[in-house]
Each structure stands twice: as C-alpha cells, then as structure tokens.
Amino acid sequence: MVKWSRFNIASIVLGFGFLYLPIVLLVIFSFNESKLVTVWTGFSTKWYGQLWQNQGLMDAAWVTIRVALLSATCATVLGTLAALALVRYTQFRGRLLFSGMVYAPLVMPEVITGLSLLLLFVAIGFDRGFWTITLAHITFTMCFVAVVVQSRLLSFDQSIEEAAQDLGATPVRTFMEVTLPVISPAVFSGWVLAFTLSLDDLVIASFTSGPGATTLPMKIYSQVRLGVTPEINAICTILIGIVAFGVVIASFVTRRREAQRVRDEQAAFAPA
Amino acid sequence: MKSFGSTRRSFAPWNDPTSKPFISFRNVTKRFGDFTAVDDLSLDIYHREFFALLGASGCGKSTLLRMLAGFEQPTSGEIILDGQSLAGTPPYRRPVNMMFQSYALFPHMTVEKNIAFGLRQDGMPKPDIAARVAQMLKLVKMEKFAGRKPHQLSGGQRQRVALARSLAKQPKVLLLDEPLGALDKKLREETQFELMDLQQDLGLTFVVVTHDQEEAMTMADRIAVMSQGRVAQVATPAEIYEAPNSRFVADFIGDVNIFDGKVSSVENHVVQIETDIGFTVRMHSNETPAVGAQAGCIVRPEKLRVSRAAPADASANAVQGELWDIAYLGDMTVYHAKLKNGAMVKASSLNAVRAVENPLGYDEPIWVSFDEDAGMVLKD
Questions:
Q1: What's the predicted TM-score (pTM) here?
Q2: Domain around A219
Q3: Selected residue of A91, A167, A184, A260 to mutate for chain B interface (largest B Cβ count, 10 A)
Q4: Which residues of chain B have pLDDT under 50?
Q5: Do residue B92 and residue A265 have CB atoms under 8 angstroms apart?
Q6: Is residue A267 assigned to a domain?
Q7: What CATH number has the domain bearing residue A132?
Q8: CA B108, CA A180: separation in Å to the nearest integer?
C-alpha cells in the first residue's frame, strides 16, 4: 500500500479541483430551483423540462448533431484515403506538399481557418448555412482522422493484402474485405474524434454559419452574453453526460477486448 | 554407371530434352533503383517438380518468387508459366498461390474463413466451398480449430492454416517463402517430410525459397543456388554437394576442404596437383586443366580418413599431422587436424559402433588420407 504524503494529497485535490470544480458547479446548479444561477434555493429538474420548450436551443442542437454526423462521416472517408495515400505511396510528385497540406489545419489557428473559409464562400457566392458549416468542419477535422489512421497503417502488415490479392481478390475487394476491417478500430476512433471536434466547435462555425443555421455552441455563447440561465446549465450537463457516457463505453469495450485477447492467447497454447 | 546419391525414381525431366519446362524465367532482370536484385537470370522449372531457391539473404531469391507471384514486375525479360507469358497479369489473375513467410493470415477471420477466402473470390457455390474447406482442414489436420482466429493458434498451427489456404484453390504452382522459418527445429524437420508427401500426393509444382541448405536438400528435387542475383548452379541436391561447379557453391553447401596448388601432370583423367601446403594430391577429374595451371582439389570432411597408422593403400593421398580439436556430436565425430606445415583440415567420421577401444586423442600424431575419387578438381 502506498503511503500518501500530505503534499501528494494536496496536489491531487488542487489539480482535480482546478479541472473539475467548474463542471461540478455547473452540474449542481442545473438542478437549482432558482432562476438565479449563483444562489441555491432547492432541488428541481424543471430546467430540463423547460429545455424541451425552448425551440431555439432544440433547433440549434439538431443542427449541431446533423452537422457533426455528416461532417465526421465525410472527414473519415477523406482522412482515411489521405492516410492511405501518404503511407502506401511513398514516392509521388508533390508528396511533401500533399502531406503538408493535409496536416496544416492541425496547427492553423481556428480564426484563420474560419476567416479564410468565410472569404471563400463569399467570393464564390455560396449561401452560408448548414452546408457551409458542414464543409468547414470536414476541412478541419479531416486531418485529425488522417493522423489517427496513418499511425495504424504504419504498423499494418502489408503481406496480408498481398495474400488477399494472391488468393484472387481485386485491389478494391482487398481493401473492403481485408484492409478496412483490420484498420476499422482506428477509422472508428477517427470518426469519434471528428464528431466531437465538430460538436463543440464555436469559432469556425461562427465564421461560416448563416441565418437559419446556428449550432449549439453558438447558441449557448450568444445566450450567455445576455446572462447565464439555468437552462444553459441543463443543456451543458446533458452534453457532458453524453460525452462521459461515450468515453466510459469506449474504454469498457477496449478493456473487454483486451481481456478477451489475453484469454485467447492463453487458449492457443493449451492442449487442444 | 555411378550416380550421385539417390533421387526420386525416374523423375528427371530436366535430363529429358523432349520435356517442356512448366515455368521459365527468360533473361529476367529486376532493378530497384541502383540495386540489381535479379541479374539476367534464366531458369526452367518442370511440372510436378519440388524446386528450391537457395541463397543468403539479399541474393534475389525472394524477388524471383515475388515476380512469379506478380507482386513485382521484371525490369526486363519475361516469365512464362505453362506456355503463357505472365507479363501484365496482376497477382489476382495468376494461377499460382503463395504461402507467406509471416503466414499473412487474415486476423479478423476464423481459420475456416481464411481458407474459404480464395474460393469466395472465385464465386464458388457455398456448399462447394464448405466441402473444400473441410477437405483442406482434414489435409492439414486442423479440423478441431476451424472456428478459431489466427491469434488463438500456435506458430505450427498457423503454418498449417497458411498452407491449407494457399492450397485451397488448387493452384498450378505453390510458392513457399521460407515456409518453415518460424518453426522450431523438431517441428521444422517433421513438417519438411509432410510437405514432401503432400507435394507427391497432390502432384503439384512447388517452388520454395529458403536460406536453410538442409531444408532445401531434404525437400527439393532440384536446387538453384543463388548469389548476387544470379544462379550459381542448378542441380539435384546430391550433384550440388558432390559436384559443385564453383568454389562458391562448394563452400556454400556443407563443409569443405580445398587444397590449392599447381597442376603437375594430367593422365587418364587423373590430375596431379602440387599443393601450396607441400604435398601431392592425385584426383580423378572429368575436366582436365592444363599442366602448370592453378587448380583446387575439393574434398568433403566425411571423405577424409583419420588414422594412427599410415594408410595401407599406397595409391591413396596421405599426409601426416596431429589432431587439434575433436567434437563428438553423437551420430558422428568431427576432427580438426593440423597438417605438417600448419594448414588445418576438417574430417568427420560416422560413429557406427557404440564403443571403440583406444579412441584417437588430442595432440596425437595421425595420418589424414583420402582416395583418388573422394573429391573433385576445380579450375580457377
């Protein structure tokens, strides 16, 4: 048993407090009876009920989810293809330029990405709204998918693709039946990453949105400027709940799969 | 007529001028940038032959196999299989299958699905696939493991699945890339004989790539010894061992003693060489070098005799020396003998009886002798 010194305990309390106290307060006050956010008067879930009545918030949530689903899916397809091109074709003209351009959005300040996309959409006369936000999100989340998938592909044993072709599978079938199933966990993590990035993006969405398409982060931000209401706390609590649930499920599945793998390996060497 | 060693009875299409090669490499060259992996190589392999490509790593043997499978294209030259040029045929349309060194099993599929993969690509009806998979599982004795995934199998079991998968489509040619490299010694030896039996039963052409000369000698009908992208010699294992065509091959396969010197006389196919280490060797040779030329006499260790007394047969080559090292290996004993002038030779003798009286000991004066037909002469 490790003996904890006072210093250790103090640093842990301070560290976690700094990280999670604001969130805990937010969650607690979402159950507050009072309309004032800072004064506790009693427990109530009425703000959650009122949430459903708030058409503006609900519309924004719906837009956000649709944007996130669509952009994450497109970004996953494009990011996976980009990663394949970068890993598999080590020599083609302009490879360095290509990889630089794929990864630039990783380090590009969001304000600049947003502004440049806005200028582009204005220049070509593209009506801003749902589609421009989606396009913008595909652009900036694709590189994250590419990074995740590329690192998986680097450790991928290419001889299994050769084996598939040797057994008569065309390159397309090889990709669909062998490559994709093997790298699918990485592709899925890339999708989840792109989905969350899109879900909580404020800056780029603000630049590229138009009338009639407001995302949830934008809505929350604009409402907060008029004063924090307990409704905001409630919807934030729901968002935190969704994200936490996702993380817990993901780690649970990973751990179970790992345990299964260890058991399988032991079984391999047991007498048949 | 004497011949070298025993081979499969009456199977020698390479000696028959009327038989057509099944696989032909014609002046094949493969370059990767500045590096020439395969250099203007021509080679014929016959139907139902068990053919081995043997060489050190980087000699081009794997590249040759990969060109046959279609994963690499020759820079120049062509490969002909069963009368058809393979140029431009992608791997998935070639009637050859390969067993990979790493086995390359599909990790997300069960043993059954792995074996069925190639059959599904051909659009074989489902009941037929199931029947063929069952037959293959039986062939490699893996029926009990049909539902397992590759990571649930041991190395030897994976090797069997890989073999079953590559045989399932009944290819014209099976390519094996270091098929037994990942197995331990005992399992490897068992599997070598299983592969030989399988090849005989199925009547297929096998081309195996290996760096293990014992493996090649055990399994193959013929061996191509490769070096630096070229074929140094193609012959049966016995010919390669007993009649190597170059110092490289003699040295690469097994142990060898080489006595270098100058030819002093040639008569009736007996070459006499005054060796650099000061004794005269007389050796039968079909090739007759010119008198005065440099030549080497090659004798394998097991053809040297080590004895206390001078050999009774006066015609034998004999030289005095002393025993330097003795290694008892169980089935045989290996002697390192230091000859009069300091040269070392290696001799081995079979321990055909369990106990001998007064065995040879260290630092003992001895005679090393060998007959006139115990070795061969190589011109430089």
A1: 0.81
A2: 54-226
A3: A167
A4: none
A5: no
A6: no
A7: 1.10.3720.10
A8: 10
Residue B7 confidence (pLDDT): 60
Lookup: tokens for A134:
């989606």
The answer to whether position A243 is within a domain reads no
Q: Nearest-CA distance from A271 to chain B in Å?
A: 11
pLDDT digits 0-9 by tens, A7-42: 989 999 999 999 889 888 888 888 888 877 778 888
For B61-72, letters b (16+ CB in 10 Å) and e give bbbbbbbbbbbb
How many residue pairs from chains A and B have C-beta atoms closer than 8 A? 80
Domains along chain B with CATH numbers: 13-95+171-251 (3.40.50.300), 255-379 (2.40.50.140)
Count of structural domains within chain A: 1
Task: Give the count of beta carbons closer than 10 Å to the beta carbon of residue A75.
Answer: 29
Inter-residue contact A244 to A250 (CB < 8 Å):
no
Interface contact flag, A163 B104, Cβ < 8 Å: yes
| Whole-number average pLDDT of chain A | 87
- Tell me which residue of B22, B34, B24 sits closest to B75, measured CA to CA: B34
* Structural domain contains residue A180: yes
Question: CB burial class (10 A; 0-12, 13-18, 19+) of residue B32?
Answer: exposed
Per-residue pLDDT tens digits for A56-105: 888 888 899 999 999 999 999 999 999 998 888 877 888 888 888 888 88
- Owner of token pair 């809505």: A219
The residues near B201 (Cβ < 8 Å, ≥ 6 apart) are none
C-alpha A259/C-alpha B7 separation (Å) is 52
A201 lies in some domain:
yes
DSSP string, chain A: -PPPPHHHHHHHHHHHHHHHHHHHHHHHHHTBSSSSTT----B--HHHHHHHH-HHHHHHHHHHHHHHHHHHHHHHHHHHHHHHHHHH----TTHHHHHHHHHHHHHS-HHHHHHHHHHHHHHTTPPPSHHHHHHHHHHHHHHHHHHHHHHHHHT--THHHHHHHHTT--HHHHIIIIIHHHHHHHHHHHHHHHHHHHHT--HHHHHH--TT---HHHHHHHHHHT---HHHHHHHHHHHHHHHHHHHHHHHHHHHHHHHHHHHHHHHTS--
pLDDT of amino acid A269: 58
- Nearest-Cα distance to chain A for B235, in Å, is 29
